[in-house]
Design a protein that fits this description.
Structural class: alpha/beta
Shape: globular
Largest sheet: 8 strands, mixed
Number of helices: 20
Length: 524
């Protein structure tokens, strides 16, 4: 039975955490960077040693709610003068064992950066395998992981009236969405997950997050939203006895059917112009490429959709199985690990799966019933790290929409700027005068590297906001002694791609806000 969440008690606890300076950077200072990294790998002893005998509120709360260690009752009471031990127990966050307080949850500070600036949340979740000293229970509610931070950073920083968070878990996507969306409905098949979502909203002073119990779109039947976000339980897990099915990651369907259900069904719940963003896995199966299968799902939607799908990485079946078996807390080398690997490999073999892709899906319902104009399915192998790319995605969509109504003559008459984070690298065979390879490298966005020919390199280098594309192309044709019409025809499609991917931007005089300018630097 989940305890009720008293808003007054949550506010008191938040005040105590604030007064204790309970922030991720302060904890990192307290126990050091190496200890912080060790915690992420499941080792807490380094942080314990670094804190030593400290009894200040930051150290006590760090041990209690980050490391999951019981703490002296008096120390906890001193660290939480407003909420007190009683408030902590009444909220269901800890157990009073007399001389010590034992945590029932983790409550970790989580820093973030988005287009509005830097911020910090307190995120409560279930005890992890480090705190439990064993494998996770199947009902486990996960805290903030790399995937959830990635999706939070991908959310568009564009204001909207209504939002939906499918499979809310601890609620981090709802918190992120509320920074731009007026009202968010958060759904999950786990009542405990919804409890954590409500708790985290209260602790962080975030209102207008409504929780509803149910699977996928069942709780919002007949409703539409301006923004939909989902980090669904997409992990592909064998549906056989003896294989744990964790609520936070396993959707209960065979293979990648859950992601297919979200992709093919989300359009009916998007308002005109609305955008859905989600993470997912997809199988390369029976010789059919995974990205091609995602395209099939999009095209099976009852509502035509714009689509931008990015596969960030792909794993072979064995690597995929090992990744998620370790994620559940089963260690390599044990008989249980070997049995689970065998079950996973049999499952993949039965469906003819030769690889599993992971990536990001952005779907948009065209406004006013317009036909879709964006169908982009690509592989981008760079890791995002902690970067927030929502602003880049929003800018790319805006540029796509503009280019859709700009013909080649208008594009040739446009004035462009090279983005400030773009550099150029030229590779020479020793002794050769001309480069054999010219690359443009992007420092921001998706950190793309593209190989270009001398004509395109010259054009990009000359885009300083002064002359139009067509004028520059004519000058370059003269220098290269090539046909100017043929060169322009070759360059314009490439310019469109560079504008979409953020290497180039329209100058401010062209009516689209510029994200920076300057010449192309040299690297290498």
């Amino acid at each position: 039975m989940l305890p009720p969440l008293d808003p007054v008690a949550c506010a008191a606890l938040a005040d105590d955490l604030r007064d204790a300076d309970y922030r991720s950077d302060r904890l990192r200072e307290a126990w050091g960077v190496s200890a912080d990294d060790a915690i992420s790998r499941g080792m807490r002893i380094v942080a314990e040693r670094a804190l030593g005998g400290r009894t200040d509120p930051l150290a006590v709360l760090g041990r209690l709610f980050v490391l999951g260690l019981a703490q002296d009752t008096g120390s906890v009471a001193a660290a939480l003068p407003r909420a007190g031990v009683t408030g902590l127990v009444d909220l269901g966050l800890a157990v009073d064992e007399g001389r010590s307080i034992r945590p029932l949850v983790l409550l970790r500070p989580q820093s973030f950066v988005d287009d509005s600036g830097e911020g910090e949340w307190w995120i409560a979740s279930d005890l992890d395998e480090t705190a439990l000293q064993g494998a996770l229970p199947e009902s486990h509610v996960l805290g903030v992981g790399g995937a959830s931070l990635t999706l939070a950073g991908l959310q568009l920083p564009v204001d909207a009236a209504s939002g939906l968070d499918i499979g809310a878990g601890c609620g981090i996507q709802s918190l992120r969405a509320r920074r731009n969306v007026d009202h968010v409905v958060a759904t999950d098949i786990s009542e405990r997950a919804l409890w954590f979502t409500r708790l985290n909203a209260l602790l962080n002073g975030v209102d207008r997050v409504e929780t509803r119990f149910g699977s996928l779109f069942d709780p919002v039947e007949g409703e539409v939203f301006d923004r939909i976000v989902s980090n669904p339980p997409f992990v592909i897990t064998p549906r056989v006895d003896g294989v744990p099915a964790y609520e936070y990651r396993d959707g209960g369907m065979v293979g990648d059917a859950l992601v297919e259900a979200v992709v093919s069904g989300v359009g009916a719940h998007l308002a005109s112009g609305g955008v859905a963003q989600l993470l997912g896995n997809w199988e390369t199966r029976d010789g059919r490429d995974g990205l091609a299968r995602v395209r099939d799902w999009v095209e099976s939607s009852s509502v035509p959709l714009d689509a931008w799908v990015i596969e960030r990485e792909a794993l072979d079946p064995l690597s995929y199985a090992e990744l998620w078996i370790r994620d559940g807390g089963t260690l390599p080398g044990s008989p249980a690990f070997a049995a689970l690997v065998d079950a996973w490999l049999h499952d993949f073999e039965d469906r003819g799966v030769t690889g599993v892709g992971f990536g990001y899906v952005l779907l948009r319902r065209p406004p006013s019933g317009d036909a879709p104009t964006l169908a982009r399915y690509e592989r981008v192998g760079t890791s995002l790290g902690s970067r927030a790319l929502g602003g880049h995605l929003a800018q790319a969509l805006a540029v796509h929409d503009r280019l859709d109504v700009v013909d080649d003559a208008q594009l040739a008459a446009s004035v462009l700027l090279v983005t400030a984070d773009v550099t150029e690298a030229r590779h020479h065979v020793p002794g050769a005068e001309e480069p054999t390879v010219i690359e443009l490298r992007q420092g921001g966005a998706f950190s793309r590297t593209i190989t270009v020919d001398p004509g395109l390199a010259a054009l990009v280098g000359a885009c300083d906001g002064d002359l139009a594309v067509g004028v520059l192309s004519d000058a370059i044709a003269h220098l290269l002694d090539v046909d100017p019409h043929a060169l322009l025809a070759d360059l314009l499609p490439k310019v469109r791609e560079l504008l979409f991917s953020g290497f180039l931007v329209f100058a401010a005089s062209e009516g689209v806000p510029s994200e920076g300018g300057g010449g192309v630097g040299s690297a290498g």
